[in-house]
Amino acid sequence: MNVMKNQHDELVPMRIQNRWRVCIDYRKLNQATREDHFPLPFIHQVLEKLAKKSHYYFLDGFFGYMQIHIAPEDQHKTTFTCLFGTFAYSRMPFGLCNAPSTLQHCMISIFSDLLQDCMEVFMDDFM
């Protein structure tokens, strides 16, 4: 990871990408998917709670989406073809319409004992 200065002299961490990244258009699948309406927190509310604390830290749950398994009977729905062959995801890729709410629901279930008391969760970010 590199740290770069922006136009306001703020230091911004930048990830170095030196590998292939797959980008798949799931618009048709998303249109056919019944949406999960699990509520996502508003980031400004999370930050307001943090502002009242004397100490805090941020952790990025890198590859958070990829920790959630797709049911075997649904994996074929994520199939894509590229130069190297035809593949289907066995874990939840970024881009599915229910991915954010599924991840948020999972994180809240895992950390329910710590939430509000000493921890906040915003999708794959832990504060």
Description:
This protein has 127 residues and is of the alpha+beta class. The protein has one domain (25-126). It is 21% helix and 16% strand. It is built from three helices and seven strands, in the order E-E-H-H-E-E-E-H-E-E. It has helices spanning 27-32, 43-51, 99-110, and strands at 2-5, 11-14, 59-60, 80-82, 85-87, 121-122, 125-126. The strands form three sheets. A three-stranded antiparallel sheet has the order 3-7-6, with helices on one face. Strands 1-2 form a two-stranded antiparallel sheet. It is globular, with a radius of gyration of 18 Å. The two termini are 20 Å apart. The mean pLDDT is 85.
Layout: helices, strands, pairs:
Elements lengths: L1 E4 L5 E4 L12 H6 L10 H9 L7 E2 L19 E3 L2 E3 L11 H12 L10 E2 L2 E2 L1
Antiparallel strand pairs: 1-2, 3-7, 4-5, 6-7
Strand content: 15-25%
**Are there runs of 5+ residues with pLDDT below 50, and where?**
none
Q: How many domain regions?
A: 1
N-to-C SSE series? EEHHEEEHEE
| Radius of gyration, CA atoms, in whole angstroms | 18 Å
pLDDT average, as an integer? 85
Strand order of the largest sheet: 3-7-6
> If helices are DSSP runs of H or I spanning 4 or more residues, what is the number of helices?
3
By secondary-structure content and strand pairing, the structural class works out as alpha+beta
Number of strands: 7
Tell me the overall shape.
globular
In percent, how helical is the residue content? Answer: 10-25%
User: Gap between N and C termini, in Å?
Assistant: 20 Å
Protein name: Retrovirus-related Pol polyprotein
Organism: Mucuna pruriens
Pfam families: RVT_1
InterPro entries: DNA/RNA_pol_sf, Rev_trsase/Diguanyl_cyclase, RNA-dir_DNA_polymerase, RT_dom
